[in-house]
Specification:
Blueprint (H helix, E strand, L loop, with lengths): L1 E5 L6 H10 L3 E6 L2 H15 L4 E5 H7 L2 E4 L6 H8 L7 E4 L4 E2 L2 E5 L7 H9 L4 E4 L6 H5 L8 E6 L2 H12 L4 E6 L4 H18 L13
Parallel strand pairs: 1-2, 1-4, 2-3, 4-5, 5-8, 9-10
Antiparallel strand pairs: 6-7, 8-9
């Protein structure tokens, strides 16, 4: 499966790219600037010791992919969505963005749509299967290929089949994915990120996560 990581040169993108490439998926790093995407992909390939990842601009990456994963800061959320709207029709779009308060990342400012994930569905339209996932996973852990991702990943979205596809991809990262139901569950999932940031700061760590107990 071809996975495009849009805004993949930031904090979360490189770790996702490395882990999926290592698991055998075809990965495309996207950036606003093609040259930056190419540069980061080359650096990651050097780390892997193989040319498994390619880099380009966000629009080209979205056009080439089966699944796109958006990892931009929330300030660039809507503008990035608008640039890839046409390329995403008929595909799965995974939104990792969280509407953190730019003045205090220990808080969120939820958009009128209810969540960043629901906002993505509104912008992209019904032809795109939008899924919310990976908002609560430490970028620090993702980037360290020797680290165990000691947390669960909650997955929500309107399509059960699309959720199942994304859950399979998440499990290839080395962690458990849990079906959290419809898209509106993102209103509960996204704010957890602000709580985890608060815990990281308070306890001077970089890897706070969540575990869901009592499930089969």
């Amino acid at each position: 499966m071809k996975i495009a990581i849009l805004g993949g040169t930031g904090e979360q993108g490189p770790g996702l790219a490395l882990r999926w490439a290592q698991a055998g998926e075809e990965v495309i790093i996207g950036s606003r600037q093609r040259e930056k995407g190419e540069r980061v992909a080359a650096e990651l390939n050097q780390e892997l010791g193989k040319a498994l990842i390619r880099g380009t601009d966000n629009v080209s990456a979205a056009a080439a992919a089966d699944v796109a994963v958006l990892t931009v800061p929330y300030a660039a959320h809507v503008s990035t969505l608008e640039t890839v709207k046409e390329q995403m029709k008929g595909k799965i779009f995974v939104d990792v963005s969280v509407p953190l308060d730019p003045e205090n990342p220990r808080r969120v400012i939820m958009p009128p749509a209810g969540s960043a994930t629901e906002e993505a569905q509104h912008v992209l339209g019904p032809e795109v299967q939008v899924i919310g996932a990976l908002q609560n996973v430490s970028a620090h852990l993702l980037r360290d290929l020797h680290a165990t991702i000691d947390c669960d990943v909650l997955v929500c979205g309107g399509s059960k089949d699309a959720r199942a596809t994304v859950m399979r991809l998440i499990e290839k990262l080395g962690t458990r994915a849990i079906d959290a139901g419809p898209l509106e569950a993102a209103r509960l999932i996204e704010p957890i990120t602000a709580l985890l940031i608060r815990l990281n700061i308070r306890h001077k760590v970089h890897s706070a996560g969540i575990r869901i107990t009592g499930l089969p």
